[in-house]
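Inputs:
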Amino acid sequence: MASSKESRSWQLWAFALIVPVFTAGWLNHPPYAMADFATYEFSASDESRQLDDVPLFEQQFASSDLDEFVHSPSVTALPDGDLLTVWFAGSREGAADVDIRAARYDALSGQWGAETALVDRETTRRSVGKPIRKLGNPVIALAPDERLWLFYVSVSVGGWAGSAINVMVSEDLGESWSKPRQLVTSPFVNISTLVRTSPVFHADGSIGLPVYHEFLGKFPEYLYLDAQGRIKDKFRIADGDNSLQPTIVPIDGKRAVALLRQAGENPHVLATITEDAGKTWLPEWPVTPWNPNASLAAVKSHRGSLLVAQNNLVDGRFRLTLDEADVDLVAWSMVAEVDASPDPEGDAIPRHLYEPMLETNFLSSSGSARRKLVDEYLKKLDRRMCKNNLCDFQYEYPSLIRAGDGRYHLVYVWNNSFIKHVAFNSAWVEAQL
Amino acid sequence: MIFLSLQAYLTFSLTLFLLLPLGALSRNRRLGVLAGLTVLGMLPLIQGMSLAGYLRGVTDDLACTSMVWLIAGALMRLGFISAWSRPRLMQLWICFAIAGALLFPAAMGVGMIDTYGWGFTPRPMLVGVAAVTLLMVFIRNAPGALLLLAASGAFVLDVKPSDNYWDYLLDPFIFLYSVGALAFTGVSWIASRKVRIARPISAMDGSLGKTDPAGRSNA
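Outputs:
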């Protein structure tokens, strides 16, 4: 009898708690309305508009360290015309000494400043309260409210498949940054979500972050965050085990194209389209350009088409081209070869022949500020480029944006050694066609 | 020294406390062991990271249901509460095994439906979990009601870094534990049935086809 009374008592308590707890949960989590993609007006000043009648193509190194392996750059434009680029650098990819570097481009002088370490393994470890084995893939973007967002991956256990995404924000255009915090994006001990490509913004300032998984499958997703960086939702772009690193280009408020790195058998770029601002995506399909399992970047051009920076190759990353596609991704054409190995097949070159080629390439690529580094750099030819006295040219991992003044900025990895910045304008694009 | 959340330290000390063989130690000594494990988990090792931090690197933050289960398990080992009955445990294992089967394969990329995404817009899930909690109350499964209420209350209070309701309800460890416990129970049940079936057959050995004195045949 006493047991029955006790049972009724806890049941009454449970009923009394269930109603407020679940009602509060319901009220705290109302459905949200997903805003359309933000659309940008490009407002060149009179002066730059006059200049933009003249084709402009400039190139220089954004990074300056000579010793380290550099990888995975990302660039964003700041309100005053400056640029900020981030990348990761260390003794090799995945090494414990890798940190996230940054450099700022001064629009007045037209030069990149000194590179600085933005965040390292130790800072991440202390902030997120986990052991951190390695860092990688930083992505930077300026939100419409002029907050700078930095996303990067860290690994506590295992390889890159064990990655989680960290986020930092700057309220003062990169002068100071918040502590890193980890986004929880997976129920499986929060592993296997990576970021590589630039976020897009929605009209209300919310953030669309293209991410991908590479644990059991390889597939892309669209992570939807509010303007404060809290996750609101997540949408699958594709499933399976053959696509990575979506680069997303909004075409209008509802429509966007995603181009995907091919990680499967068919060596073509994969593509898909959303018509509802990122919630649902068409089944992915292969498009014309080749993709040797390499990252690519795209932006909507002044012509309404897509400009795509990519390694349009079956194998290797020895040539980086700028290509144009219509927004239906049917018609593709090459705009220009941005950088390429002197060997048309990308074959390895004996070191004694390679060195003078690399020197020429360095001098044409580095810009005036970094040109003086050439001799010291050539003394340090190492496994970043050469193995067994055979050396390669590699141009990979592009990040492409169109700044507020309408100019295009492309950054990519130059021979594993430098982050190279290429700036061009609409007139230059038109002159190539 | 790197300070972690209370949850990280508790995860370390409670897990080890439940795994360690404590023999016939008195309650006070068991409390001492638990306190010692908590201190051990907090001690800074290499570059300030504690053992609790290293464990968190592998497990991330456990779900609230797992935390409540760990705390309840520790209280049982200390003799403060009685052990949960087998039928109630079985109901919980089934509940978490089904939830995990719904969540993990889809979240890991099997198909275009991402069940993990449901946890970011959780109203339908809240209705479902409220219904399961009510069911637990009706079938008098107090531990089940406690786990689900605690997890949902923590979600309302936003106590974890995650914005996803699933992360409060389920993690791979409670799922694997439930699946493992169900599998073990199933194998034990099958084995015990085999023994039960085998016994009458062996008892009947040699009697098949014989007619008993009353003239009845078992053929």
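Remarks. The mean pLDDT of chain A is 94. The longest strand of chain A covers residues 69-77.
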